[in-house]
């Protein structure tokens, strides 16, 4: 069995990054795979051996300031662009390299792969990404020798595999509609922020000691209380909320010409960023959207047919990409939950010799207040109280309307199985008596026994004159599910989704700095409100690998 060895790869400012290299048997030059990660290169040793067994030189590198690499750890800053390009150039200069490089990564490591793929195409583009990577802050010094002139074309990979990409500080901090991702941000920073190593269970331990930890106000000073449970400081925490610009890498995606494989899960909080990256990519792009969360793991109870060997698929796709066998088009597949069935992703390119991807039915609107759509149970008027918020970690709902904290609607049982593949939205006519209001829409599938299974979620923030009615569109993400006959759909409209999202104080103040909370009276008008689902009419399925690799 091939054993990785550790080398130190130089960067333009002289910092040498700890890198594990695993080579296949033989002496001829081979293509290479690069993984740059803040989570510890040791965790990728089995993955490196897998790539090597298939004839690739495989490298895993600790990013600057993490684990075995010296320097300072500043997530999403310009050094990831420069260090990635320098590492690719170093790889191409090695005797075991045939010059072909695939940049691979998941989560933050996907960001590292993407900025390397996007930033080093030419000096003009590199200058743009360097500025964006620094958040547009002139005070963010890239360090000596880190300018765009140092990003040569030999630092560009030939293909990129980006799994569950976390595309930037702003994307990880807030939803596209504005609300702050409190739980995810606190958990990630407790585990990885302001330290060289990782402690994945840090937040769980802190919450065990202090169950009301995430209720601390202001959110900007949460780190002071969190530090008591962690036993260390988090000095970077307050500055994490300053950036609000989203979609920077997605905006640069059309400039790319190399092949992309974007991998995500319909249960991943960054699924829409994955889909947007795939849709906007300028080169051949492929999407694999399975029934997974951020860890890309299937439900243990799922049947074997619902599982995908991602390692084997990555190898097959990389070979096709490097050989130039991929069509210069956009193709993708979406899993229908754990059914083992896959459909072409809406947005795939239609080629003259290919069967068109499935299209949603023209009528997939479920009106509110309708016996054939979503029947209103209670809560057309309700109170969104930040001191008693609707919780994201509890699918239970009030048994009656005596304490209405949300609007609750229910569909009749489905008369036949339903396939959902594509984007879902809720369009609601609503009123709040406060100048700022979050509108959270949670869709749940209830089986005939009443068991609740999360189906879709979306949240947006609206500011405006109190008491003014507004038509609001709440995106619910990209769905991939098969709903059996007898399933009922339960829709909840609430003012909070805590602790996944910070509580809106309803005063018009920034939720990150607010210290005073106030309740908000809400009204949902069923007239003109509806749920729009991507119901697919034709039962035509595809196999993931042939779609991804053609």
Could you explain the architecture of this structure?
Strand 9 and strand 10 (342-344) form a beta hairpin. It is globular, with a radius of gyration of 24 Å. The chain has helices at residues 45-53, 79-92, 108-119, 123-133, 169-173, 182-192, 202-209, 222-230, 248-252, 271-280, 310-322, 544-549, and strands spanning 5-10, 16-22, 30-37, 57-62, 97-106, 159-163, 260-265, 285-290, 330-335, 342-344, 365-367, 375-378, 381-384, 406-410, 418-432, 436-446, 452-463, 470-483, 488-494, 520-532. The chain has twelve helices and 20 strands. It is α/β, with parallel strands linked by helices.
Write the layout of secondary structure elements.
Elements: E1 5-10, E2 16-22, E3 30-37, H1 45-53, E4 57-62, H2 79-92, E5 97-106, H3 108-119, H4 123-133, E6 159-163, H5 169-173, H6 182-192, H7 202-209, H8 222-230, H9 248-252, E7 260-265, H10 271-280, E8 285-290, H11 310-322, E9 330-335, E10 342-344, E11 365-367, E12 375-378, E13 381-384, E14 406-410, E15 418-432, E16 436-446, E17 452-463, E18 470-483, E19 488-494, E20 520-532, H12 544-549
Parallel strand pairs: 3-4, 3-5, 5-6, 6-7, 7-8, 8-9
Antiparallel strand pairs: 1-2, 2-4, 9-10, 11-20, 12-14, 13-20, 14-19, 15-18, 15-20, 16-17, 16-19
Helix pairs in contact: 2-3, 7-8
3D shape: globular
Strand content: 25-35%
Helicity level: 10-25%
Oligomer: single chain
Number of strands: 20
What class do helices, strands and sheet pairing give?
A: alpha/beta
Largest sheet: 10 strands, mixed
Rounded mean pLDDT score:
90
Low-pLDDT runs: 121-130, 132-151
The helix tally amounts to: 12
Radius of gyration equals 24 Å
Major beta sheet, strand line-up: 1-2-4-3-5-6-7-8-9-10
């Amino acid at each position: 069995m091939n054993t990785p060895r550790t080398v130190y790869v130089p960067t333009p400012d002289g910092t040498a990054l700890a890198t594990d290299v695993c080579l296949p048997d033989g002496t001829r030059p081979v293509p290479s795979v690069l993984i740059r990660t803040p989570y510890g290169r040791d965790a990728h040793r089995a993955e490196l051996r897998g790539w090597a067994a298939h004839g690739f030189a495989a490298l895993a590198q600790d990013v600057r300031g993490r684990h075995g690499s010296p320097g300072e750890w500043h997530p999403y800053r310009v050094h990831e662009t420069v260090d990635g390009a320098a590492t690719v150039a170093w790889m191409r200069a090695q005797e075991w390299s045939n010059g072909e490089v695939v940049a691979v990564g998941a989560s933050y490591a996907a960001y590292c792969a993407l900025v390397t793929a996007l930033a080093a195409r030419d000096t003009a583009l590199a200058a743009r990404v360097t500025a964006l990577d620094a958040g547009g802050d002139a005070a963010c010094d890239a360090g000596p020798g880190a300018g765009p002139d140092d990003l040569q074309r030999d630092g560009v990979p030939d293909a990129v595999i980006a799994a569950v990409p976390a595309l930037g500080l702003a994307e990880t901090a807030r939803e596209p509609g504005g609300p702050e991702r409190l739980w995810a941000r606190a958990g990630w920073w407790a585990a990885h922020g302001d330290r060289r190593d990782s402690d994945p269970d840090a937040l769980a331990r802190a919450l065990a000691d202090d169950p009301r930890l995430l209720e601390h106000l202001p959110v900007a000073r949460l780190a002071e209380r969190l530090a008591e449970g962690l036993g260390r400081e988090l000095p970077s925490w307050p500055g994490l909320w300053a950036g609000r610009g989203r979609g920077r890498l997605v905006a640069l995606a059309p400039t790319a010409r190399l092949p992309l494989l974007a991998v995500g899960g319909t249960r991943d909080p960054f699924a829409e960023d994955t889909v947007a990256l795939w849709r906007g990519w300028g080169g051949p792009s492929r999407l694999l959207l399975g029934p997974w969360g951020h860890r890309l793991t299937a439900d243990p109870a799922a049947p074997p047919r619902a599982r995908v060997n991602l390692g084997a698929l990555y190898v097959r796709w990389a070979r096709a990409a490097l050989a130039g066998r991929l069509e210069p088009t956009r193709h993708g597949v979406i899993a229908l939950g754990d059914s083992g069935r896959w459909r072409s992703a809406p947005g795939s390119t239609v080629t003259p010799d290919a069967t068109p991807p499935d299209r949603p039915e023209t009528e997939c609107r479920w009106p509110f207040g309708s016996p054939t759509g979503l029947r209103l149970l209670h809560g057309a008027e309700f109170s969104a109280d930040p001191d008693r918020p609707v919780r994201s970690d509890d699918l239970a709902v009030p048994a009656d309307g005596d304490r209405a904290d949300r609007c609750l609607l229910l569909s009749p049982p489905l008369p036949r199985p339903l396939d959902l593949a594509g984007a879902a939205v809720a369009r609601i006519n609503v009123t709040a008596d406060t100048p700022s209001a979050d509108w959270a829409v949670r869709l749940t599938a209830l089986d005939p026994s009443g068991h609740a299974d999360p189906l879709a979620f979306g949240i947006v923030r609206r500011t405006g004159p109190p008491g003014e009615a507004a038509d609001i569109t709440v995106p619910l993400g990209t769905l991939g599910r098969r709903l059996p006959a007898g399933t009922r759909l339960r829709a909840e409209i609430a003012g909070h989704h805590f602790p996944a999202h910070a509580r809106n104080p309803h005063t018009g103040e920034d939720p990150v700095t607010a210290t005073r909370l106030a309740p908000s009276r809400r009204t949902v008008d069923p007239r003109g409100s509806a749920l729009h689902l991507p119901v697919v009419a034709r039962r035509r399925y595809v196999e993931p690998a042939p779609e991804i690799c053609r």
